[in-house]
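FAQ
Q: What does a multi-component entry look like?
A: The components come first, one per line:
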Amino acid sequence: MMYINGFSAINTLTKAGENELSLEAGFVAVPFKRQAYQDYKNYIKGAALRRMSPSVKMSAVAAQQVISQANHKNLNGVIVGTGMGCKADSDAFLEKLLEDETLLSPTKFIQSTHNTVAGQLAILLDCKAYNMTFVQNSLSLESALIDAQLELASSEEKNILVGGVDELSPKTEEHLQFLHPESTFNFGEGAHFFMVANQKYNESVAQIKSIELVSELKAENLQTKINEILERNKLQINDIDAVILGIDQYLDNYYGILQETFHNSAVYTYKNKIGEFYTTNGFALWLACYGFKNQQIPTEFLYGKTVGKRLNNVLIYNQNNGKEHSFILVQNL
Amino acid sequence: MRVAITGLGIISAIGNHAEEHFFSLKNKQSGVGKLALLETAHDNLPFGEIKLTNQQLEEALDLPKKNNFTRASLLGLFAVKQAIKQANLNLIGELSFINGTSVGGMDFSEKYWKEFKENSPKNKYIEAQHPGFTTNTMAEAMGLKNYTTTISTACSSGANAIIKASKLIENNQAHIVLAGATDCLSKFTINGFNSLKILSEKPCMPFDKNRTGLNLGEGAAYLILESEQSALKRNQPILAYLSGYGNANDAFHQTASSETGEGSFLTMQKALEKSGLETRDIDYINAHGTATYNNDLSEGIAISKIFESEIPEVSSTKAFTGHTLAAAGAIEAVFSTLAIQQQCIFPNLNFQDKIEEIGFEPQTGFVEKEINHVLSNSFGFGGNCSSLIFSKA
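Then the predicted structure of the entire assembly, as tokens:
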């Protein structure tokens, strides 16, 4: 059993501390919404705020939000997923050493390891419990969620902070354009954190029924996979009220199969608004929680026609260029 | 449910497979010395470099000329093949794979960094520095279809990969798991550790009062872990059991351990609890023992605090291999299994004087004795502390 008791988003559509969407930006992802960091000073003290890398800043704010939403329960673990880690500091250290190997300060190196965020959260929250970091491209956050599930498979009450974070350094943006020259999307950044527990509390908003990851999956086997997941959870296709798809610039047939299968459900998408990054699926999960809480996912995220259904079961599906498929089934409480 | 180890694979500066490692450890032959392959301004320092070029590794692995392999994935696949062979696995595609790496393909990213531009053939290495890239390169070469993920918790990645594998098996989410870690030498890490002023100018001296820092190394090690039932059903010899593990965070500093060794204390305590063993049951501790001032003091204090008056034999094998970062926990998991199989303790090289603040001296000889349970420690940046306990089959 995995219940979500707090959910927080830091991305181009949210303001620190509000956990609300500010859609007036015209739905164009702004890769460097760094001015938003000014709002972080309510969460992080001045000197620390200057020192922290973007990923740590975003995660520290998101983490504090969800902990307070979940009424500050005793924390039994911190699990972070990140596709690229603290990329800005890593880039900075690398460029310096390529110039000269003799006069380097360790500051940027210290922040550059992929587990920096989880380590800094442990210090910030004084949490000496279980601490883990997963770095598996577009399955990084999902790997963290699956690990949380295993940690929660225990008879004692447990609360775990789990999140996904990625930052867009200027160099990364340049490099990604070399890799995806035809891209019509903005690359983005963000942190999405959740408090999960094996107990249901008053503040619980959702239950994650199933997370399934498949590294390699042929399009013709996608339908069978979906049927398996539904069957295991004793659900029919029509029980899925909404699907949230990670549609990106590559409009391949995988997402089309989902749309066809769930033609009676509402279909939502989001990467066109928050940009593309490895842990972007955190926003999809956030959007599902937001939808449960408000009994509506904003129509701005609709992909296709509106379906006026009560929101009970949501299926989140994402894939990365035909690989790294993830299915998250989440249920309203 | 008991988690069995049925396959081992390893490559480091002291050997290309498990038997060579045992021979080097037994005969006190260190692999730490001068660099021959990697070019860096710091080539005056000693390193545990593997003296096989990338091309030699590619040939040994029979890879196609056109591939995405970087050194970490080459070393990784080299070790994986041994583990799969020893465990007599046929349906390799069905394996779950938990990989650990911290450097990943950074050696290629740094080499081609200035060549990344529009339409450059080197652009395929832009993403090489992300740990998942290394894992996927290996997974694709093996044709893996099942759950594959990467753990990157700095120098405890290998130990955490083994913990994760055990959790999957215990929770019936996998029957057979390939777990371990790989890291290669890179200018990035050499300069990083050098800027922190923790690289020793001479061969490292774990647990010595006058220790002067660590030597970096490279390597890869993988284990096949499976439920005891699965191993018995396959008539597969069980080399040892993974009987306990712990994971905790020091929550003190990004790169330094707390002086009281709280994270290390907690993780050893958790591992003992999980295994149901008492401190007196542990026959040998394969310590993290990097030979930095900070680690050995902090780890030593934590060991003294947990084991009190009954401290078992302790040794660090870092002076053989160098500190292989993410791979260290996996390499030392192989050493712990070998210690159980061969009923021995491996020597701690270069030790002369005892650290006053801690209650033990490391074992400096190769000692044959009854070994039932081995505790192996791995601690990393980010306060990540992990311990594993291996038990005789």
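Q: Is there any commentary attached?
A: Sometimes. For this entry: The first strand of chain A starts at residue 3 and ends at 10.
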